[in-house]
Amino acid sequence: SKKRGFVELDRVSKIYGNKDVKIVAVDEISFSIDKGEFVVIVGPSGAGKTTVLNILGGMDQASGGSVWVDGEDIAKYNSRQLTQYRREDIGFVFQFYNLVPNLTALENVELALQICKDPLDARQVLREVGLRERMKNFPAQLSGGEQQRVSIARALAKNPKLLLCDEPTGALDYQTGKAILKLLQDMCRERGMTVIVITHNSALTPMADKVIRIKNGTVSSMELNEKPIPVENIEW
Ligand code: ATP
């Protein structure tokens, strides 16, 4: 059979609506990502970026096409398989952290690990993201950047195949956002983890190994950076 990318979307579509109204959110998109790549998906509002990420993460189902992840077409999964995939194989990082407010940082990470097959040590991962002293704090006692670090620890502790980040700096100031992107880039390099980051900001594209530009639900252009720039060296 054909050699597939670690992640490979093959003519994936997503159509919302009913018989009268059709919204084509994703329009036969195809792209491929290697294991360990740091990928930036960029494009205007409404282009379909979040829909693509949600399909890749098993949070939404494609209307058509194939979604290959590590040799499996998850577009063919039933809902039970998709739930297991989402729990065990995918780490999500969102713009607004989505922490449980009445649990500490440590408890937020441990909660996510209860439904996971092969978790890492929650305390160890919290130390790695720089929260050694903050584990017993509740989300409201943490800054935005610290809360995002908890959410990254929660995702990383699952030891996922894919780390999917939807506008992870969207709610943060410039310096804090930069530190978060540096953390994501470091995690990609140190662990050889495949990381995909959605952003509106095209000034960030030099940090990526691969840039996928999405417009009107499909790829408008793609570029490879042979020498991606460390986040801390980018000004935007
Ligand atoms: P943004 O940068 O604003 O988040 P995006 O590139 O992530 O935009 P999507 O959120 O994927 O774009 O949306 C793509 C298109 O699909 C938009 O026209 C949006 O209105 C539409 N859409 C997304 N989700 C739904 C839904 N559940 N029902 C109907 N239309 C939807």
From TrEMBL:
Q: A Gene Ontology molecular-function term?
A: ATP hydrolysis activity
Q: Which InterPro entries match?
A: AAA+_ATPase, ABC_transporter-like_ATP-bd, ABC_transporter-like_CS, MacB-like_ATP-bd, P-loop_NTPase
Q: CDD domains from the entry? A: ABC_MJ0796_LolCDE_FtsE
Give the GO cellular component terms, alphabetically.
membrane protein complex
Q: Which PANTHER family match?
A: ABC TRANSPORTER ATP-BINDING PROTEIN MG467-RELATED (PTHR42798:SF2), LIPOPROTEIN-RELEASING SYSTEM ATP-BINDING PROTEIN LOLD (PTHR42798)
Instruction: Write the protein's name.
Output: ABC transporter domain-containing protein
Tell me which residues make up the ABC transporter domain: 7-236
